[in-house]
Predict the 3D structure of the following.
Amino acid sequence: MKIFTAAQIHELDKYTIEQEPVKGIDLMERAAKALAAAIMEEWADSTPMVVFAGPGNNGGDALAVARLLADAGYKVSVYLFNIHDKLSDDCAANRDRLVEQRKVQFTEISVNFDPPKLNADTVVVDGLFGSGLNKTLMGGFASLVKYVNQSPCQVVSIDLPSGLMCEDNTYNVNANIIRANLTLTIQQKKLSMLFADCQQFIGRLKVIDIRLSPEYIMQTEAKCRILEENDVAPLLRHRSDFANKGTMGHSLIVAGSFGMSGAAVLATKACLRSGVGKVTVHTPARNYDIMQISVPEAVLQLDKDDYEFSESVACDDFDSLGIGPGLGLSESTAVALIGQISRAKCPVVADADAINILASHQAWIQQLPKDIILTPHPKEFDRLMGSTSASAYDRLMRARQMAARIHGYIILKGHYSALCLPDGTVLFNPTGNSGMATAGSGDVLTGIITALLARGYDQRDACAIGMYLHGLAGDIAAKELGKESLIASDIINYLPKAFKRLE
């Protein structure tokens, strides 16, 4: 699914009107019917409805929804804010239709506004501003938003909660944004809907299909998109009946320090579960017994140091390198790490302490090999950048810039993990759940991607498939075990079912 900018969304509407062809007012009616149907699925006709409509097309949608709800037997009160005596053409047309219907309590506000009482059984339909908003709400609209947010009512927002901008809300004022219980977004998700710091405004999210031009959607380039199963499944390679371990790739995992052997275990098990032919683990000598017992399928390569990774090793015979889980942050480990990454001739995945070490040795970032894969969570990424990001949007933009600068691949982990490609494209992963917010989950992802690289997938496909499978395995595990009890090992255990789902 492509994620369009606010400008592209406007062009999509315009293109649909011109090419279908369909009148703008008729397209608005189509949207209103779908929106009203979604509202009626949620609330019975005994529910009092209060509709707040702005002067633009979002307000026009809200007015049309109000009329349809009234036709269906709902008690509807409508407040149209026409402060500057200027409505969009379609908003004005829907105002006239609503007045002619005479089934709603209608008030058009031009100067003073006496807000209605909003009770716990009231549903507010928020149609003040949609995806075209490009500045923080101020004045009377900000006051109205605060009034709604402080009321015990339920709120359903049309397209976007009013006050929330389509993309960048870094310098927006949170108090001036509607906090919806349900957001009915039209046709496609907007970029801001994928950010953790915007979820407080969105509530539950439903995408309402109003049949906007599939031709425009198909032919228009988008820098951001959400992966879908039909994007990932065709990428999976067929496993030959005549395959052997020598033809299925050999991965090197450099992981674990004394007291952190679990990270090495998880990354290695995940790597093996992801189809690689052979895995060698380089780890401190004190981890020998644990590794042998926990992962007997792996080949052990012991560091000369008993407690930590201290010296890089030859990796000419390996098809991929995964490095970082549980390594620790000692200076000898740091020197060994940059040496290991620098001498690697195979694709590299750097995670966890590898990223933390790079964060404390900024000059080394410029030495990273082309096409390296970094998999930071938000705090690790901020450390890598040397400062805290102002917002989730700001962090994503910085990750995009860094991926282009180092010509690497950055997976910014989160509910919608974002894969930033060197060309500026961002792929968001829709799979996964909050049960996966547990220690070791990132180590599992490292192992999966390392295996896929050894299998011969390029970096883009390995990352896309890896994060999708990782989340899918977590979703299957959560469905059977519940989110609260989910641990990282469960993700590994359910990887076989995730692979089978995509076959």
Q: What stands out?
A: The first strand starts at residue 2 and ends at 3. The mean pLDDT is 97. The longest helix spans residues 459-481. Residues 229-502 form a domain with the UDP-N-acetylmuramoyl-L-alanine:D-glutamate ligase fold (CATH 3.40.1190.20).
